[in-house]
Structures are given as structure tokens and as C-alpha cells.
Amino acid sequence: MTDSTQDSAAVRTWLQGLQTQIADRLGAFDGKPFATDDWQRPPGERLRGGGRTRILDGGDFFERGGIGFSDVAGDALPPSASAARPQLAGRGFEAMGVSLVLHPHNPYCPTVHMNVRMLIATRAGEAPVFWFGGGMDLTPYYGFEEDAAHFHRVCRDALAPHGDDLYPRFKRWCDEYFFLKHRNEPRGIGGIFFDDYAEGGFERSFAMLKSVGEAFLTAYVPIIEKRRALPFGEAERAFQAYRRGRYVEFNLVFDRGTLFGLQSGGRTESILMSMPPVASWRYDWKPQPGTPEARLYTDFLVPREWV
Length: 307
Known about the structure:
Layout: H1 4-30, E1 35-40, E2 47-57, E3 62-74, H2 79-82, E4 92-104, E5 111-122, E6 129-139, H3 145-159, H4 166-177, E7 179-180, E8 185-186, E9 190-197, H5 202-227, H6 234-253, H7 256-263, H8 268-271, H9 292-300
Antiparallel strand pairs: 1-2, 2-3, 3-4, 4-5, 5-6, 6-9, 7-8
Helix pairs in contact: 1-5, 3-5
């Protein structure tokens, strides 16, 4: 990276604009605007910096939606960030990104997650080391094949200008990453995921990141537009809450972003805004064969090539 200050500024400006664009579009979709919470780390803490959280609780469509921008720095990379690059352990760092999770009321509308981020590892007298990470994935409660295909098609098309190999690589990475090992099941129908990405230098890597972030609304909004008016009752809400429990398990046990935030002393409210407001657990429960709930397991929570 030739000029880390200039490059950081470009990424920061784009991330802030992306957060605003998504919050404005989804607030208009819901009918209730996302509230804004600007925050700054108190002086003297081991993590410096701040960010802006856009949050919507109890909307007409979204039961909870959180879209967070953060730009923080610290004196030592946490273990979750240096696990794949042990030679960088102990370096200082700057981390900036936009991360969102949206939980609709309607069980026929899927939960969605998207994250785009950049980390820079620094050490006095040495060149900074940058890398990008992120992706997006879809977690339906009731499966629709055309929705899954649409989501994956948009992901594939966003990556196509940057290399024909990226979508197959990042889809496989997503399938492997968003997998609950203790349940032996995926979190949802996947999407794309990448980390430690710096191929082709800063400009090319950043261009790929922008393609991913700017494809998000195209991937998600047509799905919720199509499903928002479907009627549902208590049984569907109960199944949604049960499956949301799996979402919570993944985020607290496996998610690298959550672990990075907590290990680095991050802002807990912003880190855990991804949690659904209602979730439940049942002991040794299984859906009845032939039901739509059973079809989620047999037809969607399995390895598939959607496009």
C-alpha cells in the first residue's frame, strides 16, 4: 500500500456513504427511519476511535435492523484477527467497516447479514499491511427456491468483473464458514464470504469490496418486496424464533467479527446489535415430515449450487 492515510480515507468515505444509502433505502421500505447513534470510545481505553450505529427496533416491517459503521484502532491485533497471519501478532491495527443484520417480523421474509471491512496492521518502521473481508448471506425460515437463486445470482454477478473464480471460491468459503459444527447444519442458504483478501493490490481489492457492498440492496430488497404481504400466524412466528436461536448460537460461538469486537474491547451494544429481539430454544425438537418447516431442512439447509 503506497499511502495508507490516503487509502484509509477513501475506504472510510465509501463505507460511510454505503451505510447512509442502505439505511435510507430500508427506512423508506419500512416506513420508519433508522435512528442514528454516534459514539466515541472514551479516552484512555485500549481501543480508540468511534462510529455510527443506525438502528431500527419495532418497525412496521423490521423487528430489528442494525447497520453499523465503525473505525477503531488499537495497539495489538486480537487473536481472531491474527489467527490466519501469525506473523502479524502484536502489531497495532486500524479496523473500519460496515456491518448489518436485518430481522423482519414476517417469518416468510429472511434474515440477512452483510459486512464489508478493511484492516491495516501497523508497526513502527515497517510498511503497513492491509486486507479486506466481508460478504453477505441469507437466512430464510421458510424457503423459496427463486429467492435463494436470486440472492446467489446477484452475488455472482457482483464478483464476475473481478475474476471468474471468485464466486465459486467465496460461495464455498461462505458455506464452510456459516456452519454450526455442534448442530451439523448451516446457518442458512449462504451467499459469499471472504477474509484476508489483498489480491492484486489495494485498488483492485478495494474495487471488489465496493462491488459486494453496492450489490446488497439489489440482492435483498426484491425478496422482501415479494414476501412482505404473505400472511402468517403464531406457528410460523414460533418456528422463526426457534431458528433464530441457531443464529444466536453461531454469532456467539463462531463469528469472527463478534469475537474480534469482544476480544479487542469493542463497544458491546454495537457488536451485539445483530441479535434478534425474540429467539427460543426447544429440547430435541424436530419438525413433522412433509411440513414447510421440514422442507427448510431437507431442501435448503443442504449443500446446493443455486446458480
